[in-house]
Amino acid sequence: MIGMKELNKFCMNAMTKTLRKVAPALALKYAKNVLFTPKRAPSKWPNHVKQFNSPTRYGDVCTYKYGSGKSKCIWLIHGWSGSAFDFWPLMQKLAEKGYSTITFDFPSHGQNKGKSTSLPQMIKVFEDVSASLLEPHLVITHGMGASVVANSGWLKSYQSDLLLISPILDTYKLLQNLVSKADFDQQLFDRTIAELNKREKTDFSSLNAIPALSQFGGVLKVMHDKHDALAPLMMSKQLSKDSNATLITTNKLGHNKILRSRSLLNTVESYIQKPLQGV
């Protein structure tokens, strides 16, 4: 007897394949909605956090600054379906040690407008925002934020410290695996990616973060949980093998809980060499 999982896969394949053949324009719209619409988490910033807009080629994005340190600045770059607010517990601890932190919401994330976005768009937004910010002492990324920074032109001139938390290093491969597991029509997926490549003038499949990070000249550390269900640990292991990156593994923290862990504070402390109190 067919199980529910198999039935869902059969329905997904039948629906997407039929839609592609009968109504190709509608199929493309549906695929873009499925593949490029992040989940939006609520953000409740305290009033004493400085908030301002940073201009980008896709419109203004909400930006947040906390802490009074002028010469010691840390950038925090969130991932897919996350938001700048994910870093708020860490921002408070860093401020106590004299560091200022700057973070921002990507399009269609956090408090920004929009429904859909993509890695190529997020890379361009990061490049636009970074051009208006003070040079950081340390950059911390979470999830797909690693691929954003790694594939940006900005990284070529940055030679300081970089910490990747639960990094997604090959977004195209991850998306392809998710599509295959769901039995999403492959031709529709390929057509959607081709349309994205044409619109953003890029090659989505080439945005693998490992080659760029392997050439990074600063101090690179990667923190990854063994039970991360979203970001494959094997990719972080590959990066540590191909570069001078130090891989730090945690246990039973998953993809998001790791951001509020004592382990993260210990790792950040190894960069700034000042003890931090646990969250």
Shape: globular
Q: What portion of the residues fall into strands of 2 or more residues?
A: 15-25%
Structural class label = alpha/beta
From the alpha carbons, calculate the radius of gyration and give it in angstroms: 19 Å
Q: What's the order of the H and E elements? A: HHEEEHEHEHEHHHEHEH
Number of strands: 8
Enumerate the strands of the largest sheet in spatial order, edge to edge or round the barrel: 1-2-4-3-5-6-7-8
What is the makeup of the main sheet? 8 strands, mixed
Percentage of helical residues?
40-55%
Number of helices: 10
Measured between the Cα atoms of the first and last residue, the distance is 49 Å
Q: Roughly what is the average pLDDT, rounded to an integer?
A: 89
- Taking pLDDT < 50 over at least 5 consecutive residues as the criterion, the unreliable ranges are 274-279
